[in-house]
Structures are given as C-alpha cells and as structure tokens.
Design goal:
The protein has one domain: Rossmann fold, CATH 3.40.50.150. α5 links the parallel β2 and β3. The chain is built from seven helices and seven strands. It starts with a helix and ends with a strand. It is α/β, with parallel strands linked by helices and 202 residues long.
C-alpha cells in the first residue's frame, strides 16, 4: 500500500498523510536502535501497521475517548489520533517504547490529542474511556481483564485479532459474558476485528 492508496481507501486529508509519512520516518529511524515492530514488516508499513490500525475507525464515530493498552510503537492508538478520531491514552510499561511514543507526540503535533503513560494498565486508576483497544498485546481474556474497569457503561472493546481469534473468543467466554460482533480485517483474510459490548465478569 502507498500513501496515495491509503488516502483513497480511508478518505483522509493530505495533512493526515503527511503526519503518517513523518511517523514512518521516525519509526524507521528508531527501529535501528530498538525492536519496535517485526523487521519483516518494515517494507509494508502502510498496510501492515497504518491501514491495520486505521480500519478500526470504520467501526466508530469520531470524537471518542480511547485507551490503547500495551501501545508499543503506537498501533493502533497513535494512528487513530493522527486521523483525528478522538483523544487517545496510550499505556506502555517499557520505558524506551514510551520515549518513542513521546517523540511521536511532538513530531506529529499530537500532544493535545494523546496522553502517553509509562505504566502497567492494571495499575492505573479507573479512566472511564469510551473505547478500549490493543494490538498484539495479550490474549482477549487478558485484555478484557485489563480494560473492564476502564471502559464506561455502554462503551466498547475493539480488538484486531489474528488467525486464532475464535480460540481467544472461546477462552474469554469462560470468564466473561459479552455481546460480540466480528468483522473481516482489511489487511489479513484470516484476521478479524472483534467488537465487544456489555462486558461482565462471570
């Protein structure tokens, strides 16, 4: 995927593409000093990371408060913020990754739209967000365990999951009750976007 095809697919303004191009440059620079993403994904950043993150915006309106748990290199939270999709709190416990996220905040001009916390999400006070998300951070049941007290009543849990998504759902159903929607991933035919509502512990 190219920047132009990303712009067409997600119907974003040129300013968003410029932000993501700056994101790509910073990611490639920092990747030489630390392992932020899988090296094999670097030639395909716009599809594997940017589009994979941006597709979550198709399932929610703008202006929501997001929690991105185990934010790592900023996917999906920083991409959603770059698209102007809401206010995003990115939680990451590894300090060197937090430094990268803080550098992104400055480089992309997202200091007002994002909050970066160097914490473990389970140690945070209740945040009361509209939507919790995470990408490749933990199994679904663990994500639910982390997020349940942070998402306000009526809020959503939105997680992109890979080929073992059905197994993760089955495991989570042993510990939680929830209403679930599944949507095909735009970037991987074996993956799904999982959207859970009305999450409760059993």
């Amino acid at each position: 995927m190219t920047p132009d095809s990303f712009q067409t697919l997600f119907d974003v303004p040129r300013g968003t593409i410029d932000r993501l191009a700056a994101y790509e440059r910073l990611l490639l620079d920092w990747q030489t000093r630390m392992n932020l993403v899988g090296p094999a994904t670097l030639p395909d950043i716009w599809n594997r990371h940017f589009a994979d993150s941006a597709q979550l915006a198709r399932h929610t309106p703008r202006g929501k408060r997001w929690l991105d748990m185990g934010a790592g290199a900023g996917f999906p939270g920083m991409v959603l913020a770059a698209m102007g999709w809401g206010d995003v709190t990115l939680v990451e416990s590894v300090r060197k990754k937090v430094r990268f996220l803080q550098a992104l905040q400055g480089e992309l001009g997202l200091a007002e739209a994002t909050t970066v916390l160097c914490e473990r999400v389970e140690a945070l006070p209740t945040l009361g967000v509209d939507i919790a998300t995470a990408r490749a951070a933990a199994p679904l049941a663990t994500l639910f365990d982390w997020a349940i007290r942070h998402v306000r009543p009526g809020g959503l849990h939105i997680y992109p999951k890979g080929r073992r998504w059905a197994e993760e759902v089955a495991d989570a159903q042993a510990h939680f009750s929830f209403d679930l929607e599944t949507h095909p991933s735009m970037t991987d035919p074996e993956a799904r976007i999982l959207i859970a509502r009305n999450l409760k512990r059993l």
